[in-house]
Specification:
The complex is a heterotrimer. By secondary structure, chain A is an all-alpha fold. In chain A, α3 runs parallel beside α8 and α3 packs across α12. Chain A is built from 15 helices and four strands. The relative contact order of chain A is 0.18. In chain A, β2 and β3 form a beta hairpin. Chain A has a two-stranded antiparallel ribbon with strand order 1-4. A two-stranded antiparallel sheet of chain A has the order 2-3. In chain B, 43% of the residues lie in helices and 17% in strands. The longest helix of chain B is centred in the first third of the chain and has 20 residues. In chain B, the strands form four sheets. A five-stranded parallel beta sheet of chain B has the order 2-1-3-4-5, with helices on both faces. In chain B, strands 7-6-8-9 form a four-stranded parallel beta sheet, sandwiched between helices. Chain B has a three-stranded antiparallel beta sheet with strand order 10-13-14. In chain B, α2 runs parallel beside α11 and α11 crosses α12. In chain B, a hairpin with a 2-residue loop joins β11 and β12. Chain C has one domain. Helix content of chain C is 73%, strand content 2%. Chain C contains eleven helices and two strands, in the order ααααββααααααα. Chain C has a two-stranded antiparallel ribbon with strand order 1-2. In chain C, a hairpin with a 2-residue loop joins β1 and β2. The longest helix of chain C is centred in the first third of the chain and has 31 residues. Classes of the chains: A mainly alpha, B alpha/beta, C mainly alpha. At the A-C interface, α6, α10, α12 and α14 of A face α4, α9 and α11 of C.
Amino acid sequence: MGKLLSHRLAVPVVIALLVVALSFAMPSNFYYRVAALVWISALAVIGLNLLMGYAGQVSLGHAGFFGIGAYAVAVLPAQFGLHPLVAALAGAVATAAIAFLVGRPILRLKGHYLAVATLGFGILIAMTISNEAWLTGGPDGMPVERLTLFGWRVRGADTWYWISGGLLVIGAWIACNLVASPTGRALRALHDSEVAARVAGIDVARAKLTVFVISAVYASVAGSTLALVNGFVTPDKANFLHSIELVTMVVLGGMGSILGSLAGAAILVVLPQVLTGFHDYEHMILGLIMMVIMIVLRAGIVPSLAAFFQGRRNK
Amino acid sequence: MAVFGKCIRGAALLAGVAMVWAAPAAADTIKIGASLSVTGPASFLGDPEAKTLEMYVEKLNAEGGVNGKQLELIVYDDSADANKARTFATRLVEDDEVVAVVGGSTTGTTMAMIPVFEDAGIPFISLAGAVVIIDPVKEFTFKTPHTDRMACEKIFADMQAKGIARIGMISGTGGFDKSMREQCLEVVGNYGIEIVADETYGPSDSDMTPQLTNIKNAAGLQAVVNPGFGQGPAIVTRNYKQLDIEVPLYQSHGVASKSFIDLAGDAAEGVRLPASALLVADKLPDDDPQKAVVVEYKTTYEEKTGQPVSTFGGHAYDGLMILVEAMKRAGSEDPKAIRDEIEKTSGFMGTAGVVNMSPEDHMGLDLTAFRMLEIRSGDWTLAE
Amino acid sequence: MPELLQFCVSGLTVGAVYALVALGFTIIYNASDVVNFAQGEFVMIGGMTTVFATAAGVPLPLAVIGAILVAMVVGLLLHRLAIEPARGASPVTLIIITIGASIFLRGLAQVVFDKQFHSLPAFSGDTPIRFGGAAILPQSFWVLGGAAVIVVLLWGFFNRTLIGKAVLATAANRLAARLVGINTSFVMGLSFVMSAAIGAIAGILVTPITLTSYDVGMLLALKGFAAAMLGGMGNPLGAVVGGLAVGLLEALGAGYISSTYKDAIAFIVILVVLFALPGGLFGKASVERV
């Protein structure tokens, strides 16, 4: 079992099975929508986890990249008549370019300084989106053209469930491959000790920049997908609160765990829906649950539980 | 093994969730939904709106319900997050299977929800301000508050009457503020008024003296208008007094609640704003046709909640009552039939004024419903 | 020139609050390596408790003391119930715990207090003092003076008292401090209590100017964190300078450049400073030991 799980195809296959299995248990379109939101968040979280969990670099600005992806599919079709898919691609390319340009100077910073620099950068993007109303519709957002594929208008929560689920599986597959690649090994070395990695002949700056750009593209693609699902974008998703939410999902689920990314996203997306019945107490309970999970499962849900079961089996 | 354990737990979690959600519903109730910004930056809108809906649904049920059936109200808190609102809209339509929806406290959440209700054919009465909600007209979407454009027109008409031609504008960067600022810029030319200074502040800024200093220094300044809502206008008003700016200050209908006067304190003295008659209910002349409605709502709200009435809760009252009247006229709970009847609403007297809807106008209010108020001795007074 | 003075007073007043929040970050960070994102909630607790206590008829001085005590208890509970049990967890895990705590405290405030904005009467009147063409609220002097007193007291505490030196020793090297008999758990608890008190005082002093509500904490934590990093994490002087600098940048940016992008201006300056000085204004260049 352990060997099977360590295969680089194991995680994407597990996620694919989960997507298929859950589809049988969906009572209504609303459940499909919540699940689709989980898949989309998980996609962005996997990207961020590559940066945080494998390369050990914190970013508090990923919502900015998410926002660029989301607004690309809103603005480009409306202003230039581009097809939404082309727009999403353009968004991803633009995100990669921006991440590449700012990544060089920013990634020289370490730890909390890197956190505050990415935070500031994310806020710049969010402010631009929110203030340039002539282009983006401002704080109230703007509508997104419905996606049309071969003359067929993509709509319905169940359709989006499958599309976003598929994207998630692909995203997980790419991430698993990346982790197993030489770049991935370099990243892990860098996570443990940057100096040691450098001594071992790893181009640290380059490895960091590569994973920063890749994780930014994950966020951008997730943002584009969410915008297409909603048919509407607002600057909320580019906001620093969303950045913090993404980081929280990474840590809750478990740093350096692809399945953990899914678990973290699932908790923070599903929990607010479950807690609506508690009305005024909703936020208290949410905060409490976050604290308890982190205190009890301090390495994150998936790694901590895995270690727990591993330990029990070895007894 | 860990993976399978997780899957099983995941499935168990979802099953648990499903049980919580799939609460059994009695067949002889009429379900009405609402997604309001009860917490978050727009909670001063959503909070009174939610309380109003709950209060009046209870009251209607105690009086025997509508068409012989009890109303069942389902309220979700979207905390002014458009993405959440969208999810709750789906939940109301797909899971709760409501026949109509009141609410959407902000323009952002409303615009995010509209496609869901338009697709599903569920009548939706928004409580948000911006004119884009009903212009262009959408088949199933209605709204109860005055538009921001009307507020601008009312303010500029008042300025014009006083011979004011050069004004400064300070607005927030939030959705309401920004939308109203744009509407004001669009109509300001019609009144021969020129904007000589145009400043902004962030939604959670705590000091606007730099912006106001710049406005104060603008040559020939005759008045200042502050499109905005929340705590921002209260701080603007305080800073305005701190800097001793002597020209008149106009606020918008976005501050139309007693808490504005409390927060701004003495500085609020002499501030003018357009608002509905609700705020001056007891000061209306007895022959005012609106008096009965607004006094009844104000008394009920203040008795039940112990808090001073705001126009925002009034919008929810109007929305609910327009819906209930429409259901009575339709005599059924068919969403399409309800929609048709809402559109035929005419002569309805609400807290915001007389509502006359038509296929071209899904709001149905005109400028006469707006009153120009002035704050004197810490209370609202009719300025006209 | 009068507008320059007006902008500076405005910036320094807001900046003093950022500085106090940044100081709170610094004290806790030095004692325990925890970046406490619930720091802003202490500011909220200070302001809101005072508002509700005075509304209930408690005289202002008593309400102020009560509010500071409430914040200190919350700070202690935060350490004992949430941080101490997770001892040894990674710094990121601890940060998420404090974010959870901040969500919890905001939720609690929304139930215990309410969701409205509130104000306090200014301590010595609302009549602005005219000086060099600028209008300065007396409350601004309370804020600036209060911040100055806190900074001086802290300096005295760290340099002149035995407990203060124990805190510094713990900050320098936790293991060595434990070896010489310092109760490091006590020191960490103390740092949370002190930070909470400082945050609460900031909240009380500034509420008459900026108003308060249950959710003002998050943004203050963000700005305070940025200020602490600008100054150099772990350096109290840096925290104060960083806080005042961020406040001034916002006010001058709003006054002279663009009120719409004033927050952006502050962050651009922070980015530029960090590119030039990766350890902040007063930070030591960090050296990784292999």
